[in-house]
Amino acid sequence: MIEILIPTVVALVAWVLALQVAHAWSTGRWSATERYRLVVDAVDSVVILALVRALAAPVGVWSWAWVLAVAIVGFGLAGAALRWRSLPWHAPKPKRSLDEHGATVETAVAPKDRRRQVQAGVYGAVGVAIVALCW
């Protein structure tokens, strides 16, 4: 059973870290459109690394994989820090509706910056608490 569990955990951690790096550094479809996404990705990555370290402390070759994962998270955090000022807190998608002729009409939705800031703060605080409990 454990032989299947280790590669599965490694694959899940690699997927989350790849998404964090893609959201932080890419400029295309995978790029983050708001600061909240950067906060969520950063907290998720750090919490996952802390949980892996606490629940199944890597030994041998796996410890080097963990060190590589920490370096990847650092790379993603650097990209998030560089993009931070250029992104809004909340980038709502426009509402789509149909007009009387059946044509699609997009209307802008007011951003909820303050709400996203509070959500990001709470998300970060919960992440810090989880990391503190794991360490």
Notes on the structure:
This protein is mainly α. It is 67% helix and 6% strand. It has helices spanning 2-25, 35-55, 61-83, 113-134; strands spanning 95-98, 104-107. It has a two-stranded antiparallel sheet with strand order 1-2. Strand 1 (95-98) and strand 2 (104-107) form a beta hairpin. Helix 1 runs antiparallel to helix 2 (35-55), helix 1 runs parallel beside helix 3 and helix 2 (35-55) packs antiparallel against helix 3. The protein is elongated. The two termini are 26 Å apart. The mean pLDDT is 82. The chain crosses the membrane at residues 61-82. Keywords: Membrane, Transmembrane, Transmembrane helix.
Put the structure in a nutshell.
With 135 residues, the chain is mostly helical. Helices cover 67% and strands 6% of the residues. The two termini are 26 Å apart.
List keywords for this structure.
single chain, 135 residues, mainly alpha, two-stranded antiparallel ribbon, 4 helices, 67% helix, elongated, transmembrane, transmembrane helix, membrane
Chain-wise SSE layout:
Blueprint: H1 2-25, H2 35-55, H3 61-83, E1 95-98, E2 104-107, H4 113-134
Antiparallel strand pairs: 1-2
Keywords: Membrane, Transmembrane, Transmembrane helix
Transmembrane segments: 61-82
> What are the segments in which pLDDT stays under 50 over at least 5 consecutive residues?
none
Share of helix among residues?
55-70%
Strand order within the widest sheet? 1-2
Strand content: 5-15%
- Shape call: elongated
How large is the radius of gyration? 19 Å
Beta strand count: 2
Going by helix content, strand content and strand pairing, the class is mainly alpha
Gap between N and C termini: 26 Å
- Can you write the helix and strand succession as a string? HHHEEH
Mean pLDDT: 82
Number of helical segments with 4 or more residues = 4
**Main sheet: strands, sense, barrel:** 2 strands, antiparallel
